[in-house]
Specification:
Length: 275
């Protein structure tokens, strides 16, 4: 079998996509590949975690991808050992953020928190020095002068964060939740289906979103809020105060937690590409 000696970082990423491995990429300015390799080897020699290492390669631009088993703890420890022992080494974990990521929602940020603070806080929480790839949305203000933000991060780190529940950002605890996709029909406003699957008799497309009456838009509405879904006053349709909303959210979360492989006649994850 021919194994290409030189790989681009992109190639490493592609290869990781469907394999059961992680990749740590190491490089150090002004140090050639073989010298750096010797340093890395000397650093890891006595370490138990090195047993997770499968191969050490080089990229065309002289960086060093270290392929490890898909063992988060061992991979993290290996990365940490290299960072702590080889001065000025640039060490990062390659993750395929688009393919293998989750979206988290963080609420309860104070009114002045910005994106960079959120990134820093998350890196600190994960013990990361810049190796973890993440996409961070814009901070959004809420009505009570707090802010929320959405972040996209690889599945393993997302799960670590979700388990922690909170991340300290500035002087407050940001609450971490996994974002779940909720279907909602814009014709009847009910949850759990979209307009193409709507079999409800009621059509609310001309209904005011605020008071639930027809003939005007929410922007022109002077009535008190009333939700036509649960017929209660005090909240609008789609509000998190609505019982229908909370039931639908629970259901969406339950569905999100169902292992993917169950959607494919019990086939395991590696074999789901055809589904
Ligand atoms: Zn509907
Ligand atoms: Zn109205
Ligand atoms: Zn309601």
């Amino acid at each position: 079998m021919y194994v290409p000696k030189s790989l681009q970082t992109e190639t490493v990423k592609r290869q990781l996509k469907d394999t059961n491995s992680y990749a740590i990429v190491v490089d150090k300015k002004g140090v050639d590949y073989n010298t750096l390799l010797k340093e890395v080897k000397a650093t890891l020699e006595e370490k138990e975690d090195r047993k997770a290492i499968r191969t050490v390669r080089s990229t065309r631009d002289g960086k060093m991808p270290i392929i490890t088993d898909k063992d988060q703890e061992k991979e993290q420890n290996t990365r940490k050992t290299i960072m702590e022992n080889i001065e000025e080494a640039n060490v990062r974990k390659i993750t395929n953020i688009n393919r293998n990521s989750k979206t988290l929602f963080i609420r309860n940020l104070d009114a002045t928190t910005n994106k960079e603070e959120v990134k820093r806080a998350i890196r600190r929480e994960l013990g990361d020095r810049g190796g973890i790839e993440m996409k961070v949305g814009e901070v959004r203000p809420t009505r009570n002068s707090t802010q929320t933000i959405t972040i996209m991060i690889d599945k393993d780190n997302a799960e670590t964060l979700t388990r922690k529940e909170f991340v300290i950002i500035g002087i407050v605890k940001g609450k971490i939740e996994e974002r779940v996709q909720m279907q909602r029909c814009y014709r009847c406003w009910a949850y759990g289906h979209t307009v193409s699957g709507c079999v409800e008799e009621i059509d609310r497309r001309n209904t005011c979103y605020k008071c639930g009456k027809e003939g005007h838009q929410a922007g022109q509405c002077n009535n008190e809020a009333k939700c036509p879904l649960c017929e209660k006053e005090g909240h609008t349709a789609g509000s998190s105060a609505c019982k229908m909303f909370r039931t639908a959210l629970k259901e969406a979360k339950r569905r999100a937690e169902t292992p993917q492989n169950l959607n494919c006649n019990g086939a395991n994850k590696q074999n789901t590409a055809h589904c």
